[in-house]
Structure formats: structure tokens, C-alpha cells
Amino acid sequence: MRYCRAMNSKYFPLCGLLLVFLSGGGHKAASQQDSSRIRVNVVLVQLNVAVTDHKGNYISGLRPQDFQITEDKIPENIATFEEGNEPGIAADTSAAGSTPDAAPAQPPAEASKITASTLQHLGANVYVLFDTSNYMYRGFVFAQDAIADFVRSLDPDYKVAFYSYSRDLSKATALTPDHTQVLRGVRSTVAGDDAALYNCLLLTVKDAAPLKGRKAIVVFSNGPDNASSVPPENVAELAQSTGTIIYMISTQAAEGDPVSTAVFERMSKATGGKAYFAKNWKDEKQAFASVRDDLAHLYSLSYYPAANPNRGWRTITVKLNGKELQKYHIRTRDGYRLSQQAQTFSSETASTPDTGGESSPN
To answer: How many domains does the structure of the chain reveal?
Structure first.
């Protein structure tokens, strides 16, 4: 079930401003008819899909034709396909991702310009968000070690950013392929004030939103949020709509708070990620290793949305074709809101004024 509730009115101004910014400005989000809205030429919706057996082991070697995607129950054709850290391929849109006897969705005319090379060298973009609030005084050094080991273990092609938060967000290291620079950022952090996790996580999602390819935020939290003005529901929906995976790594202390536990689990599940609760520093390292393995085994599938009159939340369903594959479990985001930040793969860098077309998120 989609993790999204009605927006609390007292939080609307702050989060609304951020969502308007992500949509390209107030005039662009105001209405479909506003001529000031920017139109993109080629748009893909990208999904990151984990496939596991009943023991949690990853299933590899699947092909585009093994997947079936629908958006609001409308069949979609897979345009590009990538497994883990392997090079992407251009899928056969006449066969992949469609249901039997369904009329295939046609990509835009510009689709012929998109090849596997569009996704082939994108790798993954990983944001590490570290709790440096006053909850962290006791286990601070151990958490730094676990994060440092995680950064070292990532694929060299991954770009990594390191942020920390207490009451405010600190962007210690911007997104970079230089993992040594990220490690310096990890070691430079110090413990601070109260924890405004959801405020700072929303800002991190905003930074990740425009990026292409796999993008994930790995949060290490040692306690509940006690200083945010933004509700977690808004963070979860924005992450869903921009294709950003959220992994939550929390300590046993945080698990002792049932509200935080429930929020962390629902938020990560809604975005296609996972939540971990570590009892000690060894569990913290194992949780980070599990996140690394998950990123390395994700299938990345993209499609051009078929004609759909729905201008709001669109529900995405991913299934496996064939009885022998239906025993496996699928984990991915379950939809997106059309008005959010678009993920574009365009042959031109310049955008043109809107002439009535729509843009969709990644």
C-alpha cells in the first residue's frame, strides 16, 4: 500500500515550497495550461527492482521479457534494462514489459535516439546521511567506522556524497567519484544538537531528485526525530516520486521507539529500500554491507509511459512472467506523482517552452 497520507496543513508551506522548487517553479506546477511550464522532449520512468527468493537470496540472470510492468493497470513496454553493475541494454519494446494480448505502449518519436549507452555508464549515486545529533555521543566513533567501511566497499564507479545532520543539514562532501574525499568528510564530523531527521532527509532527496540512474540515500540514525517541521509522509512521497531509494540503518535505541520504528520501516519500503536495526557496531557494519549488496543486485528498468489521463498519483505494478518465476519476491517503489521532478534522458540539453506535452518523473 502506498505510504502517503493527506498533507498536514501546518507543514504545507515548507514542504510545498520545496516541491514547487523541484517542479521547476511555482508557475510550472500551478496548472497544466500555464505556458511558462518547461516541457522536456524525452522522458523515461526508471524503476529499481530487487528480486529475491523466500530466503532473501538475490535472483540474477533475468531478462527484460521476464518482467511485466503496468502503470494504473496500463501495460508498459521496457525501453532499457540493466542488471546490477553490468552494462545496460536496449530492450525490445514490442515484447518486453507487456501483458498477453495487450496493445503495446508506443514510446515518443525521440525514443529512437535513446540507446543502451544512456544508462550504461551512469552507475549509482549514493548519499550517506549520518546522524550527528546528541543521540550519537556514545556510539559516534563506531558509526564512523561502519560508514567508512561502507564507502570503501562501494563499486569504484559509484558517486558518493556524505551529509550529516543534527538540527541542520551539513553537506560535508558533495557527490563525487573520489571516495577518498568522502572518507575525509566522514572523519571530520562531530556530534551536535537535536535531531531534525525528516527536515534534512527531505533536503537530501531534493539533491538526489534530478540525477539519472540508480540513486539511493543511506541514513544512519541513532534516535527518533525531535526537531523536524516536515512530516515523514511528505519525505516518503517525494522520494517515491523522484525514484530515490531510502535505506534506514538505525540502532537498537531507535528501535525502542515504536513510532520511529514504524516510520523507518514504512518509508524505506515505500521507496523500494529496506530498514535495519543494529544492536551493536558489528550489526551496523553488516547492515551497511547488506545495503551495498542490494545496490549491486538491483535490476534497473525504464519505460516511456503510455497515454494516461491521470494527472496525479500513478500506481506502478511490477510482476514476473511465467509460473516458474512467480515464486520470487519483488521489491520496488509502487508509484509516483506526476507533478514531481522529472527524470529526463534527452538528446538536447536545452528545454523548450511547453506546448501542451507532459513531463513524468524518473
So the answer is: 2
